[in-house]
Records
---
Amino acid sequence: MPVLEIAARVDARGLSCPMPIVKTAQAVRALAPGALVEVLATDPGSQRDFVAWSRSTGHELVEQTTEGAVHRFVIRRK
Amino acid sequence: MEEPLNLVLFSGTDDRLQAAAVLTAGAAALGKPVHVFLQYWALDAFRRDRIERDHGLAPEAGSEGRVHVDDLRRAGQVSWAEVLRQAKDLGEVDIQACSLSMDLLHIDEADLDPLVDGVEGVTAFYLNAGAGHMVFI
């Protein structure tokens, strides 16, 4: 798997809905088109939320993994 | 243009305002405009000098609900007022005070927190609502 270059990171661990998405949307806004943001979240709803958010906004959900209680997402700004 | 989400906030308890703030921020993150209309006890909670106070919980919360809400707060849950501030930063969120409720509660515009964008009547609210969903909380 190619190593992805992360331009920004959002640590939303411990934050409840909707703050992981809010903080991610704020971070994505500051990125150049095509740049990547990595998000860590523990909110159990975040898995479905990030899929829905990406689909609706057009930003690409490049990676989605879970380790223990922590969900990790990598998103590419459209 | 995308149809807005229209929220009519009537209740002034922290749990219902938190739910409303979550709906607002979620829509804002998706790029959906949100129009919030503050009536009665919800408007009272947006007074500049009361917004950060404890506004209690809806009756159905009971004492057990109180414990759960307090636990979440201690775990670092962001207050509804702060969620609304973030939502406004993120997207198009317009918060208007109902003019009737302003009269009823003897509130001046200067008494309201800066989160509130203005005062309008129900006709203006309906006009701006377009064909978007309308939710009463």
---
Amino acid sequence: MDQQPKIIIKDLNFYYNKKQAIKNLSLDISKNEILAIFGPANSGITTLLRTLNRLSDLTYGARHEGDVLLDGENIYAPDINVTELRRRVGMVFDVPAPLPMSIFDNVAFGPRMSSLINKKSDLSDKVEQSLRMAALWDDVKDRLDTPAMRLSGGQQQRLCIARVLALEPEVILLDRPCSALDPVSTAKIEDSLKRLSEQFTIVIAPHNVQQATRIADNVAFMLMGDLIEHGDAFEVLSNPKDKRTSDYITGRFG
Amino acid sequence: MKINPRTSQKIAKFIIWLAAILVLVVLFAIITYILAKGIPHLSFGFLTEIPRNMGREGGISSTIVGTLLVTAVAVIIATPFGIGTAVYLTEYTRESRVTRIIRFSAESLAGIPSIVYGLFGFIFFVTYLKLGWSILSGGLTMAIMILPTIIRTSEEAIRTVPNLNREVGYSLGATKWQTITSTVFPSALPGIANGIILSIGRCVAETAAVIMTAGSALRMPTSMFSPTRTMAVHFYILAREGISMENAYSTAAILIILIFLINVVFNMLVNRFVAKGR
């Protein structure tokens, strides 16, 4: 592919006060790939995801060095519109996080906030389309007005995916999205993600290596803030070059 | 001495039950006593007529209106300032010397006896700003008095909203203000409303500060600048000066019923709003 990468991370260092969470990390993410970044807890994976939509700005004492380019544009440039960036780079959290409002209002939240869609009928269409893409439409089409809190955990997480899709993002970040879910819900979400990768660039922190095996095109292994290994999912997972990667995959630590 | 765990469990349970029952008994005793003394003299006219002959005869309509207006002025003025301060303290600043000073000031304000607020209101609103004894002076004084309560309860309510709500808001491309209004407020609303209800209770029950700022006129108020007498003040004067104990109890009964009604209506409104999301 001669296309330029969707996201380029260049020499990124990230600190929480004095503690360094990401060490001199460079990584390219190409368009429409599913990249799974895996590694033990506290490896800086969540931090890395949060630097991609600048949600890391919200943490007090957080500081970074280096650049993150989205379509060649530095997202840390002073004139960047952060709310617009967060619309383009959507995020799904590790616990289902529906807002205390109806199913419809949850999905319509993003478009309403950014005044993306103003006509009421267009908004309904967008909500339906997003819920269909997240494979939730058939579950909820008759009760869009009920509070989102009443859905099951798996449904709530698919709702959160639909909510991100309604933003018409370019990149979707998922931070261990299935860690609170049962295997059936997990399978449903993985199916949706595979279909979605045709349209979106997906960066996911899987909740285990098996999940990375099942869905990822490329994987990256992180340990203590370092990027240890990055490459084709099958190659890295079946034949890791670094001993630390193979130790982690085979369960010798972590 | 070692107490067997099952015995200590029983003792603890007994004490907790006793405490709860004691509270209920005292509450019901007071309410029943006042209602029993007050309700027999009640009539429709008592609610609709203005007091005559210093309150010996007639009703208490003007004091009901006065109470509602003073309370309304206080709540309408104090709520935006109180919630605004709470939002500033929780969302727009980090813990620092400034926030500690603001919080310390609010706590100190909460501890000041109401008569001191009355004196301040009298000097500042009544005399200096020449608002006279009026609903406005009384309401403004009450607003200052309830401000710390609203700040503290709102701050507490906003602080308990999970940070995840905010992150969801930001991650969906909402601005800071949109995040606060659309993801933080809905979750904090019941707590904020609780503070407002408490404040309404304090306004309705206040006597000392109101006498000094709103006066004790029995006429039906005609504007925000009319002096008025609230129900609590009316009750106090009737009982204190031995004018009419019967009417004093009846006023107290109406006062209790009014507070009860305000609580019920307010809770219904909040629940209706919150129910949409739960």
---
Amino acid sequence: MAAARPLSPHLSVYRWQIQMVTSIVHRATGIALSVGLLLVAWALIALASGPDAFADVAAFGRSWIGTILLIGWTWSLAFHFLNGIRHLWQDLGIGYAIGTFVRAGWIVMIGSFVLTALVWACVLTRGGAA
Amino acid sequence: MTRQFRTPMKIANGLGSARAGAHHFMVQRITAVALIALGLWIVWIALEMLHMDYAAARALIAKPWNAVLMIAFLIASFWHAQLGLQVVIEDYVHAKGLELASQIAIKFACFLGAAASVLAVIRIALGT
């Protein structure tokens, strides 16, 4: 009988709202960035090992799968960065009025795409030898 | 009714969320504050390295300030990652054995990642 009753937190009755999206995406981007950290570790170990090992990292970065992952990690970092600042701000007890809360969520979401575009505009205008 | 001689603190210590108190919360936030600055810095470094060959990229990381900030970034970010992944596992993995195994695996992986990459920065900085 227990199985027939609806269980908390009744996810199916909620319509999607920005507060849920920022919370879930913060976790997802955090997990993605943890994997991305392994790439940072790989790049540094390669840089310490020698030119051949580093060339492998550069080749991975230039490959299309590498580029897609790098764009994904850039957005993950931009989102986690902005939303993290929002969380720290709220840890101080600020910004809990519903209107402010919703607006802050949208600023984080839109801002993450703006930051990603800015970083990749820098990448495209600078080009790269490595 | 038995008389209670032990203080509430003595009873709470070691039980439930009082195991570590606010330590996890505080370290997560302190590493987050550090990563605001270090995160901006790592993006700058990555963009700088784009148009550099191997020798120039290595020389950039070998600069003392960059080596120090890179080590700070690695420690703060692997620590922050461990704390965050720990909460994800606590929330979603409910099989006792699997939860314990994955918590230990996450701690080992984050420590090894930090140790290996910090050693790499030291090798770069010392030119060995």
